[in-house]
Amino acid sequence: MNLTDVKAKYKNYTPKNATNPTKVAVMILLATENDKTYVLFEKRSNIVSQPGDISFVGGHIEDGETAEAAAIREATEELNIKKENVKIISESDYFITINNRQMNSFLAELVDIKISEIKPNEEVEKLIAIPLDALLNAEKQTYVSEFGKKSEDDFPYHLIQGQKNYKFAKMKEYTYFYTLDETVIWGFTAKILSAFLDNLKK
């Protein structure tokens, strides 16, 4: 292969995430009733992963599907509502998790249906509506985990400078917790929530 071949390969090339992450879309769903705005969360049921956790509506992005379409589809499936009941306000922030998931988030409004009228599917134990003002005033607890060098016996230390004495960079993982009465929001749901609340406070 020569330079001409390389140029041909990269002609009209579209950059991508080379780590090929698993892609997920979630929805920060807002509902207003009696002049009060709520953020909707789900308590996950025992038939799905991470049972009992509090999360936003969302799930995997299917092949050929946009992140926005996936967020809307997941909302209609999990909440048993119509597409017309969800109005996208804006795409929000996205995140890359430590286990190589790309999480896209969308801000949306619940329309033409009351919170009490929503009957979620079997993946959802219950729907939780928390006043936006309560979330804005809630204390965020932050915990830091550090990850150090490789420790596996079969890691090829002999191929790198310094071998086992190489100064591997330490990675930090920040885990957030919000506690409101008996509801605990943590993990990536809390990270997405934190970014959303920070945007509102700016």
TrEMBL record:
Coiled coil: none annotated. This is CoA pyrophosphatase. Its cofactor is Mn(2+); Mg(2+). Residues 21-153 form the Nudix hydrolase domain. One of its GO terms (molecular function) is metal ion binding. Keywords: Hydrolase, Magnesium, Manganese, Metal-binding. InterPro entries: CoAse, NUDIX_hydrolase-like_dom_sf, NUDIX_hydrolase_CS, NUDIX_hydrolase_dom.
